[in-house]
Write a structure and sequence with these properties.
- The structure is a homohexamer.
- The first copy, chain A, has about 260 residues and is of the alpha/beta class.
- Chain A has one domain: TIM Barrel, CATH 3.20.20.60.
- Helix content of chain A is about 45%, strand content about 15%.
- The first copy, chain A, is built from 13 helices and eight strands.
- Chain A has an eight-stranded parallel β-barrel, surrounded by seven helices.
- In chain A, helix 12 links the parallel strand 7 and strand 8.
- The longest helix of chain A is centred in the C-terminal third of the chain and has 18 residues.
- The termini of chain A are far apart.
- Chains A and B meet through helix 2, helix 12 and helix 13 of A and helix 2, helix 12 and helix 13 of B.
């Protein structure tokens, strides 16, 4: 089966720099796959992407060696299994708040006897290789999102779920759940405390810690704090921020640093 | 009929700051429509966009007051008329190299007796208003691209075509046609000479000058030189440049200036 | 955040006249948005519309001030949350038969601490405004469908669910559940009795009453009886009924009243 | 090959009642195919429909015995041939203004030696039958649109083109070309005179006369005047007119005649 | 209502030869509908097909008398009901492991009082006929997949579920569940034993036995053993196997038996 | 720039075995790209594929090293240039009947000074590499279809067109043009004579000869006769032939040779 290079990076102690796709377009997906990310996650929860839009995006990422992941729309087998059959090499699952929910999630990603994933990797077998059914259970990566106060409370139980590979912190939902303003700094004390608890629990259970960040400084700081899977913003945010900054610069008559080369 | 606000800006002596859409997605189109551009051009020539993809993008732009334009795939009536019927408020036509070609282009944008556009503004009538058939001839904007040595030579003839509103300089094709390296600076002497000739001819014929630029500095400089319609890069380029810069920054451990706020 | 004008109409004591979209097309959606409806509901339950088709329809409605709503495919968080993130300003939820189901539904529409909606309003934030996360809980409208005998029995409990704004009566399912012929008159005694009970309970709990009707006379009568949210037929039904009537008229040689103007 | 039932109706002296599709949706196409039309024309000129949208619409019509036709986007081989290969049983060609243009159009619809249509009826062979290549030349129907003053002037020449089966009058473009207000009555003297000339020429050359109408009364009157192919309005117009009339009726408190039955 | 011809074949003691669709394309669906299958199943579980892709495929099958079925993505009401409303004449439901799960599945396919299917057969009513609501409960076919050791154990209970029409054996999942290598022969003793138990239970309960096979010999053998619903491979497998065999033959210089006729 | 491996095969004296795509689906395209073909041609002329459908198919092929080609819809710049910008590494152009038509075709594929292709390789630059503009003129392959009696007559002139790389014989159209039954054998004397003339002229002008075949035996024979680019059938034909043969075999009770392995 095709090597899951995310596991290689982790085994060597490195951190995966992950891009985030919310635009329902195979072209923007292919474009993002050329910008240096180690992996790209198609967000079918908050991204504007349903299954029929996600499929050609998974193909578009596969034009490169970048690892394709997907955030499932919810902790339910139907969405998870369809994304895996379409070739996602890992699933980020939202709102995993208890060990029972973690088991349901992991089970949906694993063939029997480890789980209850149904066999039929129509595209995954083509993309992943002919022995997909034999190796998928050890290759496909499972990320449980820790993004509520309840999940933080239960984190040690959740992280002891067999077959769980990683967590993924969603700071916006976690902040709201903690009664904080969404979009605030990661080092807000209560948020920081929760995140530290998650990282510590990850280390104890041999689980990889992942997180969504909204600045390069946060991304770098999180890597320094032990996160080995770090996402920065999203395609939507890059496009909006870069283009609005340019328009403002032109209107102000200010020259901004900009790319050279052909304008197409 | 809905006011074509591009004409208002021009009448007041201002310059239109135009965004450029090459991603075939109504979501990226709607997103771009919120970033401060005066108009957005759906590029159905070099953009990855056919008619069936362009239609919902025109709708997406219409969620805002931003003026929707389209670059036609080629100087042919079929593409031009379908984009107008779908609600484009102006057409940028590639490769207009002679007065005959200019007349063919303008005629496709005007109802009789000024041209040969066929009547059936299915969406344009809904978006533009019930008197669309009466007012479209004076509202819809025609841009002829001047992008070959031959076109520069013929520029005075081309710009005397009745019903032509504006030119649009394509520096990449023009540079290639002049035997220059594509993607070089706008002030390369031969390119600069050609552009100056176009601008001068525009002034003489009361035609608006437009241009595609690849940096904020070029955009500003072109506005200073009299261009009243200036495009900067494209959605594809903004997304690629901003995301690759961020990845490089993270890998280098360098913090870059970045947007605050929620990461979705 | 963008004003939810449905609430304004209700606050002034008026009734919302709602259109119903079942054709999976952004064009028919935009067209319907110009016909005078106060709101339009994209039916992702019985309409022929999945998420990927619903998204550009929400954009199409947003080209006008008409309020976009959606009927969720089922009382499940995944469908509800994705429609809200895509910009629906309210959700009509099918088959709410108990207070527990009502709570599950309402919770999916509300951010913590009022519910468990996950934060990531990718398009809703753009369409709704930058303070969407702060105001969505009081702006987004929740409609519970009362369409079974069981739901009628439990209606007082259901309507006491905190955060529930409105009910929506589905007469076809309700008739079937009551053992009646579907498609019969609203004043069939048992159906009428059930509807009266719902309206009465709405008044007691300060909940808006809504209903789907199949004739202008039913729509008007329901408004007179206190319904403040009334749907008439659907795009599919209007298109089928109007075109088949015209064909029959031509074949019979009978002239029918018809629209003047251009035939496109 | 599948019988082209339009020819049967004509042979028996009858008139074809044709529906018009401008909504890019296979569902609205299938729905229209159940409303009693003899044929349905997918309008890829002014309809909001490109090739990729037209294909599943042709399939949708084929769920019924209704004959599928298409209006080509323009008098060019590429659009015409692709629609025929996709299964259209006839082509309505816009803007045929001279015998040379008529020959170019007809030639694109006929295999050698009668024309220059390229062989590859990928779907047409499946839908039409295995002997499609042998019989298409005598089955596929060619309609030349007569919609300019120039075309009316040249009508006798145009109608003498071998292989041309029918004309199709476009009253809106014809009115504009004659210097009249578009959307006016068909019996406006100058328009009426042109139409009479076309009908007379059709009779002389054994060509079927067709026309687009905008009321049942016009449709009936045209049939009485000898038109054997009559279109009424379009899906877009039926949907807009019927729904806006209903909304106005509700707001006025007036009951309108309306369909009985289930409201889905 | 349109006759469900699958029931006719069964009533006459015959076996239904079923094709399997995993390519998300209405064209490949229409093509398959012309190859001699009695029914075609759109696989929305392991096929690369979400709801928005399945809809035009159901239309494409309806261009022929072949019966359209669908495999639901999972045993959940939302997917099942939407496929039925879109015109599927039967549902194959994955992973039915207990009588409770069987009841949930069957209930989603039946209107009250037999189940809890919600009424709104938008396309099913058009395709199936105007009395669809009255007759669907006895026409629509329910297939429960027996594909785990647990399901085999519970098979007698499962098959006693009122309203269940048929089983469908998924040999790959069943083999995995039994601890066998997926893709092995059907006569592997443990797999064979499980299958025999299912067939025997079917006979006892008057339930039709169905199975997925991967060779014509298996298909024939299963029909001889009493299976009355037999699927062979899938569109994806036919395309891959036939084309790779041809390429190998050309490279080897070996002539293979091949179809005559035109190469389009 | 990415190497055009077709040129490598030719340079080594080998023949390219080319697959043919007519199903408008990125999944069937990706699947075909795994079956051993050297190149795959997306047929936008007779295939059921417009530009918006072709784009994700080009991406799907790019998940493998198989070379992506496209048949243009017609000898017109708009279709040719858009397919090249989307990443096609060569164009097969239909109906090239004269040297003038050959020059028009080749010119559309070459940047100045060799032709008039407009610069803007939005996807081609990403897929092909950053020096695409510099190298495309020598990498992109031009195939002129010789498929009429007129083209055979003019073949020596056509093949002397600078920048033309290859011919592609379309036997069906050529047979019709010669007054033969389409779909007959390649060795029918008049067809054979024409083909021999083409091959001979190719050798004289250093042009590669290509052809579409409908059996492995024809493919092999053509390679023996000097054709270095040979297509066999199409995805549509493989799917139809293989599945109908299997259904017939089951109905006849005959076992056919069939693929082993898992049935998904």
């Amino acid at each position: 089966m095709r090597e899951n290079t995310i596991r290689n990076i982790w085994h060597s102690g490195g951190a995966v720099i992950n891009g985030w796709l919310t635009i329902p377009s195979p072209w923007s997906a292919e474009l993002m796959a050329h910008q240096g990310w180690d992996s790209l996650t198609i967000d079918t929860q908050h991204g504007l992407i349903g299954y029929d839009a996600a499929l050609p995006m998974l193909q578009a990422i596969s034009t490169t060696p970048v690892m394709p992941l997907a955030r499932a729309p919810w902790n339910e087998p139907v969405g998870i299994m369809k994304l895996l059959d379409a070739g996602a090499m890992g699933i980020i699952c939202p709102m995993v708040n208890s060990v029972k929910e973690a088991q349901a999630f992991v089970g949906a990603c694993r063939y029997a006897p480890l789980g209850y994933r149904s066999a039929g990797p129509t595209r995954a077998g083509l993309y992943g290789g002919s022995n997909y059914l034999q190796e998928a259970n050890t290759s496909v990566i499972t990320f449980a999102m820790i993004e509520t106060a309840q999940a933080v409370k239960n984190v040690d139980d959740i992280l002891s779920t067999p077959g769980l590979d990683a967590t993924y912190v969603g700071p916006t939902d976690l902040a709201i759940s903690l009664g904080l303003r969404p979009g605030g700094p990661l080092d807000e004390p209560r948020l920081d405390e929760a995140i530290q608890k998650i990282v510590k629990s990850c280390k104890q259970h041999g689980i990889i810690a992942g997180i969504h960040t909204s600045s390069t400084s946060d991304a770098i700081r999180c890597m320094e704090r032990g996160f080995q899977f770090v996402t920065l913003l999203s395609d939507t945010r890059f496009l909006a921020d870069a283009s609005s900054a340019a328009v403002r610069a032109i209107r102000a008559g200010h020259v901004t640093p900009s790319a050279a080369g052909t304008p197409y």
